[in-house]
């Protein structure tokens, strides 16, 4: 009887020992998993921080003109906003329409910013978008069409006419300069860029 109790006690001790080993093994694995997850998370966070720092250190160039004290091209940090570009140009002129631009917009490399003067009635304005690039808007119906005899290559490109890029714009300006500085009719325009394209372009331009 005594031997049976001894055997039962020994078996119980062995079972308890095995259970403790299993519990310890599971706990150890759980800690290891948590450590692995924490390590991966730490690496990802460091990569994000490095990416942000690299972007901040990147130098960009942008132009600002119009109602600012010192118009020109300026070098800025990669995370700069339009208001930073204005400050680089010495700030707004006294007559500036400060609401013609979005000061909180991020400036992209090569951005072209125009600041309107108060009461200025022109078709140049900065859209309130994320890059602050120069766009064209209309202040009245007469400004909706571009004067083909005064427009520059940049003016034509910025009009964003479908199928008309820098190459076509240069052809128009070159033809105009080679023919007395004036395009007199739709036929002249067609000679410069082709019959169909010239006809289609008349929807967006005036010949004065």
Automatic annotation (TrEMBL):
Organism, scientific name: Clostridium felsineum
- Would you name any one GO CC term? type II protein secretion system complex
What gene name is given for the protein in this entry? comEA
This one is known as ComE operon protein 1
GO terms of biological process kind: protein secretion by the type II secretion system
* Superkingdom of this protein's organism: Bacteria
Record's SUPFAM superfamilies?
RuvA domain 2-like
């Amino acid at each position: 009887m005594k031997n049976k109790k001894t055997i039962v006690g020994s078996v119980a001790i062995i079972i308890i020992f095995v259970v403790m080993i299993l519990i310890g093994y599971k706990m150890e694995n759980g800690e290891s998993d948590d450590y692995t997850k924490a390590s991966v998370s730490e690496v990802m966070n460091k990569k994000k921080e490095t990416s942000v720092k690299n972007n901040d250190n990147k130098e960009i160039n942008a132009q600002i003109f119009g109602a600012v004290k010192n118009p020109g091209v300026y070098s800025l940090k990669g995370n700069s906003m339009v208001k930073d570009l204005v400050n680089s140009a010495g700030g707004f002129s006294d007559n500036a329409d400060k609401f013609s631009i979005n000061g909180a917009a991020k400036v992209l490399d090569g951005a072209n910013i125009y600041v309107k003067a108060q009461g200025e009635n022109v078709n140049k304005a900065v859209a309130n978008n994320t890059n602050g690039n120069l766009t064209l808007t209309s202040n009245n119906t007469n400004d909706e069409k571009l004067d083909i005899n005064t427009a520059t290559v940049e003016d034509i490109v910025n009009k964003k006419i479908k199928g008309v890029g820098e190459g076509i714009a240069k052809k128009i300006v070159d033809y105009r300069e080679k023919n007395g500085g004036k395009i007199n009719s739709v036929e002249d325009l067609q000679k410069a860029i082709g019959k169909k394209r010239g006809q289609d372009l008349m929807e967006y331009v005036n010949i004065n």
